[in-house]
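Running log. JK asked me to keep both predictions on one page so they can be read side by side. First protein, sequence followed by its tokens:
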Amino acid sequence: MLGGEPVGALWPGVPTGPVVGLAVLAGMLLIGLGVGAWTGVQGRRRPRDGFAGARAFKGLTEGRVARRTARRLRPSLAGARHLQPNDLGMPIGHLDGPGGGPVRTTWEDVALAICAPRTGKTTSIAVPAVLDAPGAVVATSNKADLWQHTARVRADDTGERVWTFDPQSITRRPQTFTWNPLAGLASVEHGRRLAGHFVQEIRRSHDSGDFWDRDAEDLLAGLLLAAALDGAALRQVAVWLTSTASVAPYNILTEHGFVELAESMAGRAGGAAETREGVYATARAAAACLTDPVIMRWVCPQPGLETFDPEAFATSRQTLYLLSKDGAGSAAPLVAAFADRVMLEAVRAAEGTPSGRLDPPLVAVLDEAANICRITELPRLYSHLGSRGVVPLTILQSRTQGRRVWGESGMDELFGAATVKVIGAGIDDQPFAEDISRLIGDHDVPVKTRGVGGTSWSTRRDRVLPADKVRALKRGSAVLLVTGVRPGMLRLVPWMLGPRAVDIRAAAASEAAEAAAIATDRRTAVAGSGSTEAGR
């Protein structure tokens, strides 16, 4: 029967057998088409051949393994029945393929992202990392966009202070606090560490170690330590750099027991005039920002302004934005010194806990690191920060950019120490694209051969992703390299497509309107001042 009627009643004179056979055949055809369509969809959702799927990354997805790892790394979560996604780690994208979904670092990973400009570094990587951090955050940038899209939301989420260090008025916000880089500086080691941030701005060859750079760093280390011991402000170092004959730093260091360093400075001052002037000129170039009175107001005590405390910040849920423009004389050395000091204090705080880790962890989103946050020791810091609950995410535009700052060996050390690496679109460095292709590896490709005796099959080894395909990655796609796991493919998710899009848009609109109002007020004030002068 078909449709409740006998076949003969529907088609009189037609044999029943052929009609039933045709109906069965049509049904099988429809089922086959359905299965084929489903298989096609599944095929499109498979990870690319040779890349790892969701099972390989189970420690970085929001499943049982990730929850168990989070409870191990964060003792405060041990008794929690339910964990929120941001308890598990820092978001870095969505894994391609079936069973994919969000991917997060663990709280002991140290991450590195290399993506060309305008490929979603800030919108897809930096913004989500800042907003999802469960503890303190330090974030760097040379533009206002990261601050504009996250500062107000972070303040609402945490209910705690947001600090904006902006000596060059990128956000157009007034100064509300100061930070003293000399506070707590009491050793030659710390003096050299601070001096290194200044010299890093002009270093010509990190691998070879230029003579002028080394001696300028030693000179600055002595001057910075002398100023700190004397209770002077940072601007005093700029004053001492103007005169090679000044004996004040020598006397201060000697009085406080740093005789060897004092003698070294005296020997340099008494050496050949050409060498002495060359070292001092190099040091002045490195510390050019110390001669800018606007920048100095942010790093010297100011009446009525609060002083930032890096030690207290490390164990809070506060947020610190460090902004600087690029180029000579910018505040970039101070941004690097500030970020380095915060992470150093975070490590010290972690060492004082029973677990040896910060809980919640401190997240450091170092966007535009090679331009404005050239922390000299960053490659070495990557080897131990994760074990202390200090989770850095360094974002670069290319490997070449990193090598220009840390040298070839330093950049290779940073790349090797990063336990999570995200390689995005726009890699135009052919040797780097080839290196990534080799890291991804080879896979077996079936080869069909037709001959006189029939068809045969064999396999050949091909690159999973040749160098030209690495270079041609589409925007929004990235290769994911995780220690101990086969490479995977990521889909970067911009905040506009995330769950906080409405909040972020509203906050950014408010910040933009306020910045426009401040700019208008300033123009009005300048115009009024000009009218007054003309009237006189």
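And the second, directly underneath as requested:
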Amino acid sequence: MPELWPSSVAAPLAVLVALALDRVLGEPSARWHPVVAMGHYLSFMGRRIAPLTDALDKRPPIRFAMGALAWSLGAVFCVALAGALAWALASWPWWVQGLALGALLKPMLSWRMLRDEVSAVETALAESLPAGRERLAWLVSRDVTHLSEAEVRESAIETLAENLNDSVVAPLFWFAVAGLPGAALYRFANTADAMWGYQGERNGRDWTWAGKWAARTDDVLSWLPARITAALLAVPGGWQRLRALSGQAGVTPSPNGGWPMAAMALALNVRLAKPGVYTLHPTGRSPTLADTAQALRFSARVVGGLAAFAFVAALFIGWRNYS
């Protein structure tokens, strides 16, 4: 009987290992976290490509080119390093390869931290509205100073839905497509978008042109995963919910973020809004503490479903090649 194909079984095993490590251990130490290293690089380069807001920028095309070049250098390094690590593991036994790949994949995704941070907003809200606002400020870049209790809760649920894609579904999607290099590329692109992808001022610098490449590449890489995330959230609600999804998702400025957020709004039957920017499912009710808990359960089901799919895939591949 032939041996199991290492490259075939190791990939789904790695997903299971990564999700298990995330559940049990959470995030690695910042000293060893690759996303922290990506952030250091992006911060260093960002100070060199984005002009200060009090300086008149007369070279938008040059700023765009500098941003694209700095992004590309970082992306090439991340992909090359991940590819070298994956190549070094290729000759190992399938189970060792799966365990090692899972350990390397874990920092590219983060479900436990997302879950805990959203839960912490509700815990803070139980203390006081100012405490809830302060805790929400850890998660979002918008001004939280004047948000009501309902608006704080809406923002937390929106963050949960959007980051379910960014922190779980999309990294696993690109891992399935292109292995560890694909997951590393997506994580770098998403981190770059979070740090550079702004229209206008951010932390005293103008990112209108310097961050445009980072924003657009993240849009491209997130396009399909965001819709997969939305479908995973919306499908249990039936055809009517899926029909309403595309219309609701299109009201947000982001080409991708609106999809999982709209799916979550429809799944909970709540209104989710960013004041002055968009309102998702406007006929829905205002979210309550119970809705945040339900949103966390819906998201956990998506993560559990991905783990179950990886488990079945590993069993199927192993059975097919062993028989």
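Observation for JK regarding the second prediction: The first helix runs from residue 6 to 25.
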